[in-house]
Amino acid sequence: MNELLVACGDVDLLKRILADLPAGRFKPVATRKGTGIAPKLVGRPVAAAIVHAHLADQATAQLLSELRSHLPELPILLLYQDQAPANAPVSRSLRYPVPGPVFRNALNALLPRHHSQADLEQWRAFYNETKLRLQRAPSQSYFQLMGLNNGAPHHKIVKAFDALSLRFHPDRYDQYKSERWGQALYDHVNAFYKLLTEAYAVISDRRLRSLYEQALARGELRLDSETSNPSERGPRSLDELSNNPQAKRFLKLAQRDLAIGNPDAALQNLQFALSMEPDNKAIEQKIASLTTP
């Protein structure tokens, strides 16, 4: 198992960093100091280093310099609480603490991706499933597209969309576009997700749903574009509650939390999003809907 250097001078913060690491993926090498650490790592299977700007011996700059000297190719994630050190010789900097998924995404972005044959088979199966969904879509109602029976109640529509968004949101697959198979996968997922958001926008809206059910009774599977004009609708998913990039990041996490049945975590991420955009009434309303009995 690859090792991961984790250097942080604060004991409680060090424990949190260790708890936020991907489970079972690395053997952490934890230290509160920076002096003399780098030479001891030479020749060991160290995949990356996580260095907090505050070390117990105030040797952050020394540790970073020695890591670059002894292990020049080692990816380094620098964590800071207030302000990132200027011109630090690191691969990436991140204000910390942040929610665990944000931290893990930052770490994963530094590491090379290795796909086993089993991984490739899973990707191939997912690609084929998405392709099949797209092929079936023209003959399906919006309800069927989301795996629901025609006439499904609103709460089931929301739950289905949250779960499907967790699986098919194109942002999850953007990072793989450089892979040989990644662009085709992304294109198919993106096309299917557009259909999902179109379906959700119609059947989750009371007025449009009524019109759509009348269309279904006439044997029509889609509303015409004029009737379902998106400009007359509100946001179609949580991440559309804001155009602020930082707020959207936490809104996407909240969407995922709701999909997996964790409203407490969703509420926390919504509050993070609101802190990035304090005047956003739509986020406030969503928080109120989760906190009102």
**In percent, how much strand structure appears in the residues?**
5-15%
Taken from the alpha-carbon principal axes, the silhouette is elongated
Lateral arrangement of strands in the main beta sheet: 2-1-3-4-5
Which blocks of ≥5 consecutive residues have pLDDT under 50?
230-235
**Structural class by sheet pairing and helices:** alpha/beta
The count of helical stretches stands at: 12
User: Could you state the order of secondary-structure elements as H and E?
Assistant: EHEHEHEEHHHHHHHHH
Alpha carbon gap, first and last residue: 47 Å
Helix content: 40-55%
Number of strands: 5
CA gyration radius, whole angstroms: 23 Å
Q: What summary fits the major beta sheet? A: 5 strands, parallel
Rounded mean pLDDT is: 86
